[in-house]
Design a protein that fits this description.
The chain has a single domain, classed as TIM Barrel (Alpha-Beta Barrel), CATH 3.20.20.70. The protein has 11 helices and 8 strands. An 8-stranded parallel β-barrel has the order 1-2-3-4-5-6-7-8, surrounded by 6 helices. Helix 1 runs parallel beside helix 2, helix 1 runs parallel beside helix 11 and helix 7 runs parallel beside helix 8. The chain is globular. The structure holds phosphoenolpyruvate (PEP). Phosphoenolpyruvate binds next to strand 8.
Length: 251
């Protein structure tokens, strides 16, 4: 039985005062004991989040990590070991904004995934197709290739200590959500892709859906058999809305 997870990606948002407010709001939420909850603040706000959320059992992750796991001469980067030391337990790898806007290539993502696991962090690998891909009926090929690049380089077994987030690029920050059926279809295909290499790993891995999830549509998405929770962007910046999404996962 897979535990559901709801994770909030704060992206490049937050000031010292707005983050303090958000953390206060999160601390006052009722979270279900059956759902793992996590937030991904900017590096600047990781320590505050770790301190504030420890008592309510909300995990903290980073939005990015260096390609090498330990410290060294890599100006501007943050090592996985430093994130671990700061209290992070997870890290996002391959968010579409990093793939598309920052041009992160598969080789870089694989190195980041490996570095994260070497330091004991759980990578959350983000995959998803663009609208153009979907319209050209390339969704399964694109998502499959994104998964294969990690599995070919590191082996399918790495997914026994990782999470996958399916985030159709056309649904991120647009207000357009995949229907539960559309999302389930891709989640099922992701699990099948992993199962072709290792059925046990495929059954155990958590597959989160991301793309304009809000309290109003969360329950219908989370009800689908291969959707094990959500990766939430915009709605995660509002503590009450995020809390309601987490409760939808627990109901
Ligand atoms: C995201 O950026 O991971 C995301 C899912 O954003 P939003 O919920 O705002 O679409």
């Amino acid at each position: 039985m897979r535990r559901l997870m709801v994770a909030g990606n704060w992206k490049m948002n937050g000031t010292r005062s707005s983050v303090a407010e958000l953390l206060k709001g999160l601390k006052s939420q009722e979270f279900s004991a059956t759902v793992d909850v996590a937030v991904f603040p900017t590096f600047l706000h990781v320590s505050e989040a770790v301190e504030a959320l420890r008592e309510v059992g909300v995990a903290v992750g980073a939005q990015n990590v260096a390609t090498q796991s330990g410290p060294g001469a890599l100006t501007g980067e943050v090592a996985a070991s430093q994130l671990k030391d700061a209290g992070c337990s997870l890290v996002l790898i391959g968010h579409s904004e990093r793939r598309q806007i920052l041009g992160e290539a598969e080789g870089v993502l694989v190195a980041k995934f490996k570095a994260a696991q070497e330091a004991g962090l759980v990578p959350v690998l983000c995959v998803g197709e663009t609208l153009e891909d979907r319209e050209a009926e390339r969704t399964f090929d694109v998502v499959g290739a994104q998964l294969d690049s990690v599995m070919d380089a590191l082996g399918v077994e790495v997914f026994s200590q990782a999470v996958i987030a399916y985030e159709p690029v056309w649904a991120i920050g647009t207000g357009l959500t995949a229907t539960p059926e559309q999302a389930q279809e891709v989640h099922h295909a992701i699990r099948a892709r992993l199962a072709a290499r290792n059925a046990e790993v495929a059954q155990g891995v958590r597959l989160l859906y991301g793309g304009s999830v809000k309290a109003a549509n969360a329950a219908d998405l989370f009800r689908m058999p291969d959707i094990d929770g959500g990766l939430i962007g915009g709605a995660a910046l509002n503590a009450d809305e995020f809390g309601a999404i987490c409760r939808a996962a627990g109901s």
